[in-house]
Amino acid sequence: MSWPQMLWPLGLSLLALGVVATFTFEPGAFWTFARTVNPWLLGGACATTALRVFFGGWRFHFISGGRLGLAEGVRGQLAWDFLSNLTPTAIGGGPIAIVYLARDQDIPVGEASAFMLFSMVLDQLWFALSIPLLLAASSFFNVFPDVAYGFGHWTFFVVFTGMLLWAALFSYAILFRPRLLRRLAGRVFSLRLLRRFRHRVVREATRFSERAHRMREQSAAFYAKSFLLTIAMWMGRYLLAVLVVWSVYPALDVVLATLRSAALHMGGLLMPTPGGAGGVEGLYALFFGPLMPGSLMALTLLVWRFLGYYVFLALGVYLSFHQARQELQRSA
């Protein structure tokens, strides 16, 4: 990734933050923030960021059967989060992170693909479970902002239903029809311009198919633990915004804020910009703005994006240098 590719999403995010601050920031808000902040809750917000990465690394370690160490799994999760911030949210960074995972542990790309795509399946299964729960909860809680009801509410319903169908289709294809990937790769790389890569790509696709077949034969306990680690990861994402706001606004409705945070993240998956930059900030103002005093919105948004976005850009730069150093040592 080049510096412009890393800097323009950051600039877009900061621009959106500036727009929110223009309409909501008050001169005394910073001192109110500093004077009233609950350090334990703010520390908990920092801890959720670290735990989210840890659980992601643990998941890689577990589903690989120890093929990836815990440290390598954590680095793989960091790389995934970093690349997700540099690619449109619909892509998610996972396909690119496969290459990092393979190089970092020096394993075949097909094997790394199986670990990554199975992790993506687990995420899709979580979406498939949480989307109906959110839609059901909207009958009892004001999950979606008032401006989203009416036409907007039905828009959310249609979009979430589409996401649910995609999650089911993706999971089925990866778990039960992995050979389709090998066939597709064989056809695509039969084209004249790509024919020289065909043997290697088909070989890696075959390895992926074999690894996916072994994963499909795992016990129910394997799937249960993998899914619990996935839930822990996503709850860390949801609770980050809740804890940040709660740390400066004790009257926050925590249950409603948690539901809105989940809906916000689901909506963020549809953003076309890298990491949802620019759009996610707007969603934060839409979902969390009505739950707290307006003067706190810009500062809580800044802290939330710092812990959930900006810090991963910095860690991604470190990982890039770490892998470059590793490859130099291997070639020496």
Summarize the structure in words:
The chain is 76% helix and 0% strand. It is mostly helical and 332 residues long. The chain has one domain (3-331). Helix 6 packs antiparallel against helix 7 (151-176). The chain is globular and about 60 Å long.
Give structural attributes.
mainly alpha, globular, 332 residues, 13 helices
Largest sheet: none
What is the overall shape? globular
The Rg value, from CA coordinates, equals 21 Å
Tell me the domain tally: 1
The first-to-last residue Cα distance is 24 Å
Residue-averaged pLDDT, rounded? 79
Enumerate how many helices there are, as a single number: 13
Query: What proportion of the residues form beta strands (DSSP E)?
Result: under 5%
Total strands: 0
Q: Return the string of H and E elements.
A: HHHHHHHHHHHHH
